[in-house]
Amino acid sequence: MTIDASLVQERRLVTAIPGPKSIEALKRRSEATSAGLGIAIPVMIERAHDAILQDIDGNCIIDLGSGIGVTNVGNSAARVVDRVIEQVQAFTHTCFTVAPYLGYIEVCEALNRITPGDFPKKSLLVNSGAEAVENAVKIARHYTKRPAVVVFEHAYHGRTNLTMALTAKNLPYKEGFGPFANEVYRMPLPYPFRWHGNPATITQDSLTEIALKIEKEIGAHNVAAILIEPILGEGGFIVPPRGFLPGLARYARENGIVFIADEVQSGFARTGDLFAVEDEEVVPDLITMAKGIAGGLPLAAVTGRAEIMDSVHAGGLGGTYGGNPVACAAALGAIETIEQDDLVARARHIGAVISTSLQELAGTYDIVGEVRGRGAMQAIEFVLPGTKEPNAAAVQAVVQHCQSNGVLVLTAGTYNNVIRLLPPLVITDALLADALSVLRDAVASASS
Ligand SMILES: *Cc1c(COP(=O)(O)O)cnc(C)c1O
């Protein structure tokens, strides 16, 4: 069997969005699927390749979201597809903790090699980002024999019970789903655009405040882990000020606290480094990964210091599907693609193109409060003109304009006032330029 994976990398609209077939299909969606599931764009996808999504009406939409930062290597990337087909024909499942296989080990070897830190590392594979975060916390507590976990304002770590507790935002993630896990303590996050204090001393002031709060409210000796996204994802692509992450890592080290970087969204070449912490040479004790790890198949991981990862008794970690062989094959294909096609460099190039274009918007339209991000993880925060008041209505207008014109963009932000761009790292220059021109028109029309 041969599969034609090619799909012309061009935006093409043949109906309105949504088209008639999508409208019909969306009725079935409402009837069959839980009302608790939202959707970002009202179309039904039939196929996708690299940065183009084709819907059942034949519209070809430019994907600036990558399924939330997942298809970094492109949708149905060749090396992922080849390895998955080979694996699915060989075997589909044994459960690694029942009858192990080499694919799982090869993914762990790769993660131990590519993650920051030149000390011995070990890895654990699971199914989702939330499960990776849960396991990192379990391991840190087991290793330190301490209960408390320190997290931050604007954080997102998942939707399971523990990770809801770790997540900052109530609606839509937590509302009505409590009670939540205890021993979770939230610290202020230095959010440069909205910092209340002196911008010149934001890093030192926030580190001092956090150390004081930890000492007074928890006691550093009770803290198992400090957990942070190096660039906050759902919170609105907030980039902490320079020096903050290194300072936090230093504080953790001095107090015997496990420093966990949640790289679920920022990892796998997204920011122009393999992992976002590399930008300031921060070396976490544990890293959680998912999303971009396997080109679209469900896989997640915790990688970190061998002495921490090995502190758990045999049988203490695991799960039926964790490190499924098909997902592992996909991960090996994705990691090979990132390395052989130098997608780190590609992310830097995409980042430069996007930020040049967005900075132009910031200089032209007063609803653009700030443009920020790193590499191919860039965002626009919208405000009411002349203020820093969040402008969620502008975001809705921009999203609507983009969708009607065949460009998929995602939103984010505690105040629902951020548009975030997470294009596949294989997007062509021509396609990216086309998408950015649609986005420019959308911001122009939202500001008039
Ligand atoms: C998406 C995300 C998660 C949760 O991952 P799931 O696979 O959806 O469970 C955790 N942390 C961060 C930073 C994320 O962006």
Task: Note down, in words, how this protein is organized.
The protein is of the alpha/beta class and about 450 residues long. It has two domains: about 20-65 and about 345-445, Aspartate Aminotransferase, domain 1, CATH 3.90.1150.10; about 80-340, Aspartate Aminotransferase, domain 2 (3-Layer(aba) Sandwich). Helix content is about 35%, strand content about 15%. The protein contains 13 helices and 15 strands. It has helices at about 20-30, 65-70, 80-90, 100-115, 130-145, 160-165, 200-215, 245-255, 305-310, 325-340, 345-365, 390-405, 430-445; strands at about 45-50, 50-55, 60-65, 120-125, 150, 185, 225-230, 260, 285-290, 300-305, 370-375, 375-380, 405-410, 410, 420. The strands form three sheets. It has a seven-stranded mixed sheet, sandwiched between helices. The chain starts with 19 loop residues before the first helix and ends with a helix. The structure holds pyridoxal-5'-phosphate. Pyridoxal-5'-phosphate binds near residues 156, 233 and 290. The site of pyridoxal-5'-phosphate has 14 residues, from helix 5.
Indicate how many domains the architecture comprises: 2
Give me the Rg, rounded. 22 Å
CATH superfamily of the largest domain: Type I PLP-dependent aspartate aminotransferase-like (Major domain)
Q: What is the CATH fold-level name of the largest domain?
A: Aspartate Aminotransferase, domain 2
Uncertain stretches: none
N-to-C order of helices and strands: HEEEHHHEHEHEHEHEEEHHHEEHEEEH
The CATH architecture of the largest domain: 3-Layer(aba) Sandwich
Tell how many strands the DSSP assignment holds. Answer: 15
The strand order across the widest sheet is: 4-10-9-8-7-5-6
In what range is the share of β-strand residues?
A: 15-25%
Oligomeric status: single chain
**Helix/strand/pairing class, anyone?**
alpha/beta
Using the coordinates above, name the CATH class of the largest domain: Alpha Beta
Shape annotation: globular
| Average predicted confidence as pLDDT | 97
Associated small molecules: pyridoxal-5'-phosphate
Helix content: 25-40%
* Euclidean distance between termini CA atoms: 53 Å
